[in-house]
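Researcher: We plan to redesign the surface later, but first we want a full-length starting point. Tokens attached.
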């Protein structure tokens, strides 16, 4: 869309073209910041926040692409969306944050979440379009949280690469999440070198408590589907607040007179290389072979954080330097250095933490106990994304033994659910109904034969029977994750991302297969499927399942969510 007023209706907007135009402006913002051309940078940011296409994209983000809407304010009518986009402007004002009570999973208690109203969420999405490419040009290489093209798996792989040299090291694992409630707003705003209206807008949001909202709900943001609605800008602000920590510590250790370890030289490069800083949003890990140097770094971290009004979260952090051989937890993984049997060296072992395993089992149990009367088909539809999603996150580690154990524990819960619901018939008859013998199952590109797989059937509107099955968690194979290169970002338009999105991305096998098959293009709009829109990719059945379409590769395509919505609307009209 152009920056001029238009009479186009919401359903007539060419989202592929709009996104392409906005990405081009963002690329120019990235290049301007990289080259230090602040005059051009500020002009482009001002142009972007006043661009009608960017405003439409921001409204589209908060009303269509994001699935969750906790403030109960829903806008579905196209004319209302157009009206909201026309009224959207960065004015330096902030509406009061809506406080809602959200039930905690598994537990009976509820927690309070602070959710900006929909207009402010759209404003945050618009500001993020302008700020994110600027900061991606300067962010530190070992910052991985809530950045495009980066994930928690990159942070875990970074820790592995630091510990796998065979020498025991010392670890400091810290969390400063709660302290964002008291962040020094003036110190944070001083980090911004942007146009005045953006600075005033951010100051208004800080005053309204945007960082408090992040502090209270940050753990909910770490999901396999991306950032939830209502948290558009706060993760970016958290990254900006903590930007400079890695540079500060690297400069600090390079000026120390102490050698990193007995075998190293006293050069600056050796001192900087010996210290590893891995940061995921406001959780970070410091790793060093010399305990004395690490303790000095911890003191420097606390001093640096104090200037921002921040301090280490004492309840969530390991407040002492820990030997890597004792193990520690980070982002759901347990990481430990284990001595090899044959040689006097140490290897790194990474596997899902006990807390993560327990959380999965409790979630599965909760679903089964609260849905005793649903059909097997419906239960599978609820359990499968949770189990496979959990497995896809943890498959990039030494997980097979744990996957086998959890697979058995989940199967015991499923079997108990089956035999408890049908007590009139014999057990053999019940078993064959829910766990049919002699069947084979195609999962993750492999053929599996098992007589104890839960199978569900359901009749659709067309009278056709749909069938699904619950795969064993142990069927998910372990893989090796390749860490993103240090300063790579999707904003640089490098060929690196086209290769990585297929070969090394943490997507499921089905998504990877379709990406290769489609040459990374959406078959509906014929535009590229990129890291920017990966949170809104959806699997579409070319011939809808309601019309007899099968769940097979020749009937599947990977599309943008907005393309999927439009295709579904047309399919329904054709079916009628």
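Model: Full-length starting sequence:
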């Amino acid at each position: 869309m152009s920056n001029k007023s238009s009479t186009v209706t919401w359903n007539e907007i060419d989202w592929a073209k709009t996104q392409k135009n906005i990405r081009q402006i963002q690329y120019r913002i990235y290049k301007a910041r990289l080259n230090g051309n602040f005059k051009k940078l500020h002009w482009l940011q001002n142009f972007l926040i006043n661009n009608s296409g960017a405003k439409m994209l921001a409204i589209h983000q908060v009303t269509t692409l994001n699935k969750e809407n906790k403030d109960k304010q829903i806008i579905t009518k196209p004319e209302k969306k157009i009206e909201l986009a026309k009224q959207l402007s960065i004015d330096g004002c902030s509406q009061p944050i809506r406080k809602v009570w959200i039930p905690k999973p598994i537990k009976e208690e509820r927690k309070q979440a602070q959710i900006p109203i929909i207009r402010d969420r759209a404003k945050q999405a618009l500001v993020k379009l302008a700020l994110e490419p600027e900061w991606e040009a300067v962010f530190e290489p070992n910052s991985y949280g809530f950045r495009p093209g980066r994930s928690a798996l990159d942070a875990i792989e970074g820790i592995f690469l630091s510990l796998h040299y065979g020498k025991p090291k010392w670890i400091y694992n810290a969390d400063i999440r709660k302290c964002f409630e008291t962040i020094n707003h003036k110190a944070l705003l001083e980090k911004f070198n942007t146009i005045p209206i953006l600075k005033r807008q951010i100051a208004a949001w800080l005053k309204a408590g945007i960082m408090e909202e992040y502090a209270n709900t940050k753990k909910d943001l770490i999901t396999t589907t991306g950032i939830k609605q209502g948290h558009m800008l706060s993760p970016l602000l958290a990254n900006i607040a903590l930007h400079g920590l890695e540079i500060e510590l690297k400069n600090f250790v390079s000026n120390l007179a102490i050698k990193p370890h007995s075998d190293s030289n006293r050069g600056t490069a050796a001192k900087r290389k010996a210290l590893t800083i891995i940061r995921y949003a406001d959780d970070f890990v410091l790793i060093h072979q010399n305990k004395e140097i690490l303790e000095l770094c911890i003191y420097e971290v606390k001093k640096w954080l104090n200037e921002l009004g921040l301090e280490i979260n004492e309840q969530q952090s390991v407040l002492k330097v820990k030997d890597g051989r004792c193990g520690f937890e980070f982002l759901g993984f347990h990481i430990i250095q284990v001595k090899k049997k044959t040689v006097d060296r140490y290897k790194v072992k990474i596997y899902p933490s006990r807390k993560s395993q327990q959380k999965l089992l409790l979630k599965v149990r909760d679903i089964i106990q609260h849905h005793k009367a649903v059909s097997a088909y419906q239960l599978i539809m609820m359990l499968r994304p949770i189990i496979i999603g959990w497995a896809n996150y943890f498959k990039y580690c030494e997980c097979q033994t744990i996957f086998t154990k959890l697979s058995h524990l989940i199967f015991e819960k499923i079997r108990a659910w089956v035999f408890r619901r049908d007590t009139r018939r014999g057990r053999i008859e019940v078993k064959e109904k829910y766990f049919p013998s002699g069947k084979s199952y195609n999962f993750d590109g492999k053929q599996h034969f098992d007589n104890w797989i839960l199978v569900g059937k359901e009749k659709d509107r067309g009278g056709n029977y749909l069938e699904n099955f619950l795969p064993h968690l142990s069927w998910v194979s372990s893989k090796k994750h390749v860490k993103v290169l240090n300063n790579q970002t999707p904003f640089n338009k490098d060929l690196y991302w086209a290769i990585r999105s297929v070969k090394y991305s943490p997507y499921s096998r089905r998504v990877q297969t379709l990406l290769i098959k489609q040459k990374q293009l959406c078959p509906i709009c014929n535009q590229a499927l990129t890291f920017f829109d990966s949170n809104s990719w959806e699997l579409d059945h070319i011939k809808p399942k309601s019309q007899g379409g099968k769940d097979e590769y020749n009937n599947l395509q990977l599309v943008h969510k907005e393309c999927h919505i439009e295709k579904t609307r047309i399919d329904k009209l054709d079916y009628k």
